[in-house]
C-alpha cells in the first residue's frame, strides 16, 4: 500500500508593501529574512508561498524545525 503524504496547513502573517521600483515586496515577520517580490500582487503572493516553503524545508533539513 502506498503511503499518503499528509499536508499540514500553517498560518502566518505576510506583509505586502509596494516597492519603490514597482511591484510588491512580501515578508514574513516570524520567519526572519523570508522575503520575496513580484511585479504584481498575485505574483508576489505566489513567490512568497514558494519562499516560505523553501525556508521551512531548510529548517527541517537542518533539524531546526521538529515537525512540519
TrEMBL record:
<dbReference type="InterPro" id="IPR035069">
    <property type="entry name" value="TTHA1013/TTHA0281-like"/>
</dbReference>
<feature type="domain" description="HicB-like antitoxin of toxin-antitoxin system">
    <location>
        <begin position="14"/>
        <end position="61"/>
    </location>
</feature>
<dbReference type="Pfam" id="PF15919">
    <property type="entry name" value="HicB_lk_antitox"/>
</dbReference>
<dbReference type="InterPro" id="IPR031807">
    <property type="entry name" value="HicB-like"/>
</dbReference>
<protein>
    <recommendedName>
        <fullName>HicB-like antitoxin of toxin-antitoxin system domain-containing protein</fullName>
    </recommendedName>
</protein>
<dbReference type="InterPro" id="IPR051404">
    <property type="entry name" value="TA_system_antitoxin"/>
</dbReference>
